[in-house]
Amino acid sequence: MKSYERAIAFVCVIVLISTSSTDAFxxxxxxxxxxxxxxxxxxxxxxxxxxxxxxxxxxxxxxxLKKKIKAEGGKLAFNCKYGALNPYAIYYGVTAxxxxxxxxxxxxxxxxxxxxxxxxxxxxxxxxxxxSQMWGVLLMFFSQSxxxxxxxxxLNEFYKQDRSAMFVANHNSWMDIPFVGYxxxxxxxxxxxxxxxxxxxxxxxxIKTGGHLMIDRSDRRSQIRTIxxxxxxxKDGVHLVTFPEGTRSKTGRLLPFKSGAFKMAHKTxxxxxxxxxxxxxxxxxxxxxxxxxxxxxxxKIIIHDPIESIxxxxxxxxxxxxxxxxxxxxxxxxxxxE
Length: 338
What we know:
By secondary structure, the protein is an alpha/beta fold. It has 12 helices and 9 strands. The strands form 2 sheets. A 7-stranded mixed sheet has the order 3-9-8-4-7-5-6, with helices on both faces. A two-stranded antiparallel ribbon has the order 1-2. α8 links the parallel β5 and β6. It is globular, with a radius of gyration of 20 Å. It starts with a helix and ends in an 11-residue tail after the last helix. The N terminus is likely disordered.
């Protein structure tokens, strides 16, 4: 790596480290359900599991990786242990962090409000969702990353029914999170995420303060509490959002769905709204630290017709939703085997 590339990477990592926050222990509470959440007590972000970087042992492999990264991100793109970067990725990262500072302050003040009022004010936790939505919209605005939304009229028609739903989408990039939030619009919704995300600076605070759901796959009791909390949100008219693959696809192709992903919608008789996210992995390949190019005129989200869960088994619901999502994906994102 050239000296100027090392300098740029070092500055970007230092900015990330300096904005990290810690917290030893907190509680998340919703409608009488309290979940203990342990936070990371490290100020330093862990290096990404960049297998392309770690496995580069020969000159040929290094050259191949270098060509791949430059093909994706241009002549100034380079690799480091936190992932690949180029000028746009650095701009995106710095913008996300700078916008994240007031976002974090807003979340902390909101959390303080909930403590002082003992949760009696904003019991559905709309304020944190509004602040998070604002961060996502501003980030997409400054980075030219608004995806094209196809089928918005289906969503507008559904909203007239004044019902809650579970939004389900394929997962290729962490850009998917602001993408889906932008698609849903300025409404109250809660993401279902893995517990590890609660340790991510700023994002973890947003998840906890906003009443989003975290699933600890190693704790059966935690899973039951999460399902009950999600069912209650749906009954209260709050939308849920989930990526049923459970992790982002490194190839861009749809992965198998995790079992139980639709249990909350099925048990409450809530409809599921499938969404197909297209080309997110091209804007943000899995081995990049931040997106390598703008999503505008590249990424799309196809909103499909709502699928009713009543009258179907949970497996039938999952199969229909999966087939619907696949129908909106290009060939290079469809699973190889079904």
